[in-house]
User: Which sequence fits this backbone?
């Protein structure tokens, strides 16, 4: 799961980044609207945290641009300006939540997780496909009720596919979501193969009724 923080104050940005990384999110950052627009135009995020007072204008302008780009990222506005106007305008422009500064990092983490639960799992705490169940709150996976031990990356890959059963995922999109935006500068995606091979082996040995299938030349797909 990848999050973009749009915040111009470096110490604030770092605090939020560290806190979300502890929750095992892949975190990218932008310090102004133009960087945010460029990133959102190039990459996909599961959630965007958006400050309102930014050096090159109002974060609400960025919301309008997201809409024009037909991006459907979930957005939480984090604003020091505790004005009702910002809140109403932001939610009108399609933001999903609003958190006034100052806030506790625990509260922000909870809001992000709740938003992602709504986005990917209809509010459910666990996601089940076939006989495999994944519990994102504590990074556990079970096959037929028995625990399945996965490495961090194997888990992240499985999580990505469990949120998108039956859908084609390109290697680029997978790499970007699990490893981060910088990965598009990689020469090839060979590093995916090793992780994928181990994940498939573990799933099959555990008797999983699901499989991450390679779609030749295109990417992968989770099938039952
Ligand atoms: Ca600011």
Assistant:
């Amino acid at each position: 799961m990848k999050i973009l923080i749009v915040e111009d104050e470096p110490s604030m940005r770092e605090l939020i980044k560290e806190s979300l990384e502890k929750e095992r999110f892949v975190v990218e950052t932008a310090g102004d609207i133009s960087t945010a627009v460029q990133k959102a135009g190039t990459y996909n995020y599961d959630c965007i945290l958006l400050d309102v007072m930014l050096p090159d204008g109002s974060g609400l302008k960025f919301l309008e641009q997201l809409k024009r780009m037909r991006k459907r990222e979930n957005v939480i506005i984090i604003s020091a300006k505790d004005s009702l106007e910002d809140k109403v305008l932001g939610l009108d422009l399609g933001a999903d939540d609003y958190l006034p500064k100052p806030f506790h990092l625990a509260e922000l983490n909870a809001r992000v997780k709740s938003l992602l639960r709504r986005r990917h799992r209809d509010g459910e705490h666990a996601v089940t496909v076939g006989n495999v169940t994944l519990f994102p709150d504590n990074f556990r996976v079970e096959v037929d009720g028995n625990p399945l031990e996965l490495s961090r990356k194997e888990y992240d890959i499985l999580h990505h596919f469990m949120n998108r059963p039956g859908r084609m995922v390109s290697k680029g999109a997978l790499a970007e979501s699990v490893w981060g935006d910088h990965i598009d500068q990689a020469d090839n995606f060979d590093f995916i193969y090793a992780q994928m091979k181990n994940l498939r082996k573990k799933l099959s040995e555990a008797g999983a009724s699901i499989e991450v299938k390679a779609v030749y030349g295109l990417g992968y797909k989770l099938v039952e």
Remarks:
- The chain has a mean pLDDT of 93.
- The chain has eight helices and 14 strands.
